[in-house]
TrEMBL record:
Its EC number is 2.6.1.37. It comes from Alicyclobacillus fastidiosus. Residues 82-328 form the Aminotransferase class V domain. This is 2-aminoethylphosphonate--pyruvate transaminase. Pfam families: Aminotran_5. Its cofactor is pyridoxal 5'-phosphate. The modification N6-(pyridoxal phosphate)lysine is found at residue 198.
């Protein structure tokens, strides 16, 4: 039986859903009316704060909230932004880049995919050459932090070569926005996508898009889906003071509002990024001492999630997982297609002291299982 008390039975060492604060959980203990002005004001406050966190000006950028998981929001962007005269290039080095191409294929969006392999970052020079060779490409989409491995792709460099060639940029920052500084307007990103339950430390239930207002305004009538029409969602929020088109996850929205206030109290994105980086560095050092080695080199590693290689051919992830869970920690299985790995997240309400305790437990368990 799962303990239904408010205390968490274990710490989520995952990239989202993640362990949240008591304040965020308590924020969900009140009911809200979606039509009420108080609730719509919360939505508007969230939209405004997201623009600030993305280092944007409201004259040029807008934020749109959308019900569902992060993948719903990615699909909303791709199926609203691209019409039959557009062509998408997906830059892929993991499962979430491949998911973009699956969405495009399902929606019959003209697209190409360029794969860099699961353990290589997106190469800006290759992107530039690909765009120069195919002038029919109008939009480029890629993942900033590919949680398949924990790879962080060179956002600024990749966006720069795309914008130099006057193509539109769609960036999935699901696992990085709020935990790594991103200057959306300075980079001229057209559509940035993220989720409530990642580095901003809310709970699952909705995602959001920070969009160039002029680019979004051109998308009227393009949507291939009624529910996922990003333009209409934006239009209703703009014209009705924060109203969602359809029933919104009210408790989740209020929890996210609380999470944004807690981010500000912590010191904003710079302070959170520093904490996550410290968590990840301590994790890698401690795991190495315990006999586990990270898949990626330090230069390519994000502070969000780290993949570790199996230490031996007879290593049982299932047994290791259950032992850790019994000690109060939940981790992630691997997602690579060619190498045996498991993954450990370092975001959420996790602090360096938690990491130190975790690696002590890992060291003890690994000695037992060998």
């Amino acid at each position: 039986m799962i303990d239904t008390a408010y205390e968490n039975p274990y710490l989520l060492m995952t990239p989202g859903p993640l362990s949240t604060t008591e304040g965020v959980r308590k924020a969900m203990m009140r009911d809200w009316c979606t039509w009420d002005d108080d609730y719509k004001e919360i939505t508007q406050a969230i939209r405004s704060r997201l623009i600030q966190l993305g280092e944007c000006t409201p004259d040029h950028y807008t934020a749109v909230l959308l019900q569902g998981s992060g993948t719903y929001v990615v699909e909303s962007v791709l199926t609203t932004v691209l019409d039959d005269d557009s062509k998408l290039l997906v830059l892929e080095n993991g499962a979430y880049g491949r998911r973009m191409s699956t969405i495009a294929k399902t929606a019959r969006i003209p697209f190409d995919i360029h794969s860099f392999g699961e353990t290589n970052p997106v190469d800006p020079k290759v992107v530039a050459a690909r765009l120069d060779a195919d002038p029919s490409i109008t939009h480029v989409a890629f993942v900033h932090c590919e949680t398949t491995t924990g790879m962080v792709n060179p956002l600024e460099e990749v966006v720069r070569v795309i914008k130099q060639r006057e193509r539109s940029v769609i960036v999935d920052t699901m696992s990085s926005f709020g935990g790594m500084p991103i200057s959306i307007e300075a980079l001229q990103i057209d559509f940035l996508i993220s989720s409530a339950n990642k580095c901003l430390q809310g709970v699952p239930g909705f995602g959001f898009v920070i969009a160039n207002t002029n680019a979004l305004a051109q998308c009227e009538g393009r949507a291939r889906s009624h529910s996922l029409d990003l333009f209409d969602q934006w239009k209703v929020m703009e014209e009705h003071g924060g109203k969602w088109r359809f029933t919104s996850p009210t408790h989740v929205v209020h929890a996210f509002h609380q999470a944004l206030m807690e981010l500000e109290t912590e010191g904003g994105i710079p302070a959170r990024a520093a904490r996550y980086a410290e968590n990840q560095a301590r994790l890698v050092d401690g795991m190495r001492t315990a006999g586990f080695h990270a898949l990626l080199p330090k230069a390519q590693q994000s502070p969000v999630i780290t993949s570790f290689l199996y230490p031996s051919a007879d290593f049982s992830f299932a047994a290791f997982y259950e032992s850790l869970k019994n000690q109060g920690y939940v981790i992630y299985p691997g997602k690579l297609t060619e190498q045996m790995t498991f993954r450990i997240g370092t975001i959420g309400d996790i602090h360096p002291g938690d990491i130190d305790q975790f690696v002590r437990v890992v060291s003890r368990l690994h000695r037992f299982h060998r």
